[in-house]
Amino acid sequence: MSFFKKLFGDYSKKEIKRITPLKDKVLALEEEYSKLSDSELQAKTPEFKERLAGGETLDDILPEAFAACREASWRVLKLKHYPVQILGGIVLHQGRIAEMKTGEGKTLVATPPTSTRWAARASTSSRSTITSPAATPNGWARSIASWG
């Protein structure tokens, strides 16, 4: 390990440490959101839109919106975001690039920030090398959003 790395630390590790509390807030909502009926969970999207119209920001609603997307993903796709995927989603939400290894679920990572931005009617763009349109971040996010 280089002298500078020892002195200043690893940037990625610092960033993960910085956003881990947000991930923990999302995961802490799992039990509450899993108990919601389908209609109660679907009602979260208009609630988020209302809150955003009332002056809250995407960052303000992030934990709840990501938790709602995570639960909707489980109900619609039978896929639940792992903690590392929530971290990756937070990074994407912040407009940064999330680098992940093969098999870590990059496609699923994009659904919370995409769904959250759609609720706000904000622009969103994601790119994937997957050839099946249904299995792309936008395809999965569209499935989740149209359910809710």
Radius of gyration: 16 Å
Structural class: mainly alpha
Mean pLDDT: 82
- CATH top level class name: Alpha Beta
CATH architecture: 3-Layer(aba) Sandwich
Low-confidence stretches: 123-134
Number of helices: 10
By CATH's scheme, which homologous superfamily applies? P-loop containing nucleotide triphosphate hydrolases
Q: Element order, helices and strands? A: HHHHHHHHHH
Number of separate domains = 1
Amount of beta strand: under 5%
How far is it from the N-terminal to the C-terminal residue, by CA? 48 Å
Brief summary of the model shown:
This protein has 148 residues and is an all-alpha fold. Helices cover 67% and strands 0% of the residues.
Question: Features of this protein?
Answer:
mainly alpha; 0% strand; single chain; 148 residues; Rossmann fold
Explain this structure to me?
It is built from 10 helices and no strands. With 148 residues, the protein is mainly alpha-helical. It has a single domain, classed as Rossmann fold, CATH 3.40.50. About 8% of the residues have low confidence.
Ordered list of secondary-structure elements with their pairings:
Layout: H1 3-8, H2 11-28, H3 30-34, H4 38-42, H5 44-53, H6 58-77, H7 83-93, H8 106-109, H9 111-119, H10 137-147
Helix pairs in contact: 2-6, 2-7, 5-6, 6-9, 6-10, 7-9, 9-10
